[in-house]
Amino acid sequence: MTDSGTFQEIERKFLLKHLPAGLTRLKAMEIEQGYLVQTETREVRIRCKDRAWFMTVKDGAGLQRGEREIELTREQAMALWPMTKGRRVAKKRYAYPCEGHMLAIDLFTGALAPLRLCEIEFASVEAAKAYQPPDFLGKDVTEVSKYTNASLALHGKPHSGRTGEKFGCLPFFKKGKELYVVLATKQRGKQWTFPKCRSRAGKTDTEAVLMKSYEKAGLIGTILPGLHEKCPLDGGAVLHLYPMKVAGILNEWPEKSIRQRRVVKFKKAMQMLDDPGLVKCVQALADKLTR
Question: Is residue 201 pLDDT above 70, yes or no?
Fold first, then answer.
């Protein structure tokens, strides 16, 4: 195990409008990384790049973060790697020289394709803020948490935010072998459903779903990583459904006066839902939970 020490990483991140000239003629580095810890201000990851393994701890968020990297033996890495299941990303990284800077251009593969990001490191905060990106770079997402690699590993590819997209969860818990779910009615209505919302600025889709689960049904829980179903809804809309393991059910919640809530066995819940597309989607997600 080799420790490279701690240093300050000053880095800006951009989406790509298009690939720059000559990029694919360069040799790409194959990178796969998984996360042991992911919070708002700390990440601990295991990374394999060109057959070498590293553990990296990053502290902070946004433009400037502390970073400490330790090289691992393959045996050490293999002992830790299974702990990152469901929290991994894979990508091809190109080192692209441009206007005096070396750009790290990442083309994500697997479930994150065709996402493309560019990271650029700087010697100082002043140099980072003064940087004028070339025309093939798009939106600056340095301060957008949903584009961190850790968030991508945990929550998946950020959605477009189109009006036809919604995000929801299947709130569940188990008693023995029995699966229970929590339903809530639509606002001032009698139709039973699950907590849903649209994308919220500054939050990942799953963070928005957790907030709405509390507001609409008084639920506290966690989204299970690596599981997700895309459900077609009436009118061409799409619901991205995630499993939420319920940790607490509150007696009081913000929308209690306008919604009902019920905890029922899974089979009963399927009878209470009146949208066939949602029933099919929920069943597919539940099958994954009970494998």
Answer: no
Q: How many residues does this entry show for the chain?
A: 291
Residue 200 has pLDDT above 70, yes or no: no
pLDDT score of 137: 94
What's the token pair of residue 184? Answer: 């809530």
Q: What are the tens digits of pLDDT across the range 134-191? A: 999 999 999 888 899 988 888 787 765 555 678 899 999 999 889 999 999 987 678 8
Q: How many CA atoms lie within 13 A of 286 on its CB side?
A: 21
Find the largest Cα–Cα distance for the chain.
Answer: 63
Report the distance separating Cα 58 and Cα 116, nearest Å.
22
Whole-prediction pTM value?
0.59
Q: Could you give the count of Cα atoms lying within 13 Å of 209 in the half-sphere of its Cβ?
A: 27
Tokens 């251009």 correspond to 105
pLDDT at 19 over 80: yes
pLDDT at 5 (0 to 100): 61
Question: What percent helix, strand, coil does the chain show, rounded to 5?
Answer: 25, 45, 30
Token reading at 103: 């750009």
Q: How far apart are CA 66 and CA 222, in angstroms?
A: 27
Per-residue DSSP letter, 80: H
Residue 112 · residue 228 · CB < 8 Å: no
Q: What is the DSSP letter of 207?
A: H
CB 193 within 8 A of CB 186: yes
Residues near 102 by Cβ (< 8 Å), separated by ≥ 6? 95, 96, 120, 121
